[in-house]
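Late entry, adenosine monophosphate complex.
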Amino acid sequence: MIVCRTRDELAAARKDLRGRVAVVMTMGALHEGHAALVDAAHEHADSVIATIFVNPLQFGANEDLAKYPRTLDDDLALLEQRGVDVVFTPTPEVVYPREPVVRVSAGPLGDVFEGASRPGHFDGVLTVVAKLLHLTRPDVAYFGQKDAQQLLLIARMVQDLNFPVEVDAVPTVRDPDGLALSSRNMYLTDDDRRASLSLSRALFAGVAEEAAGADAVRRAAHAVLDAEPSIALDYLALVDPDTLAEVPDDAVGPALLAVAARVGTTRLIDNVPISLRDR
Ligand code: AMP
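Prediction complete; structure with ligand written out below:
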């Protein structure tokens, strides 16, 4: 595995990669969710590049940029073990030699849900994803369904701006008790972790009602969240997966049930696909 810290090192390593090339972009503090992206990449490509970069541009002023977990040695060991060919782990100065004047705007889809709580977040995400796509030049890029709004916006950027890359999604990897794996789970105390299970439980309660329609899904999920006083709910929404608009009560077809809440000092997000049937 070749570890690159500069753009020149990456360009040299990229030149030697053969066949179909996949990229997996991460902020490090890697877990089995990230590993699932690498596995999916191997399945459909000949060479795999992973990036590890905590992108300052996507953190708000009062967010956890400084304390975001950094576990580079463990991350490199995991990536090596999963057969990654090239790792790009740049410093902020390598990615942003100058403050970028030109940035990617996520538009209105970047202002709702996660974007409502985190102004500018998705502009920062799309800007760094665009840069990393240009630097790694993959045929295909893998992203997790866990960050559904991010996945949607990246797919739209690639479509709307004609990036020559395929975007593929990987289902959310969970702990056996249902909690979606996240680097931020490291922040949870034992009590927080117990309370955080109400997020996935609420989503699965919603799934169990999908045959009964949108309203039943929302009510079942809300009932679980209402019973957990130690979380601060940000949103629970049942939305159209393409437009993120709330679906009407008589909706049929695919939808996304998404939740965000603060548990202790940690903000967690999760979502599940819902299939609303004609009744
Ligand atoms: P992050 O390092 O949190 O920025 O995530 C890097 C990539 O891994 C993103 O595409 C995430 O959606 C994906 N990811 C994070 N957690 C999970 C998970 N539990 N299951 C699947 N993919 C994940």
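Residues 26-27, 33-34, 36-37, 143-144, 146-147, 170, 172-173, 180-183 surround adenosine monophosphate (CB under 6 Å). Will revisit in the morning.
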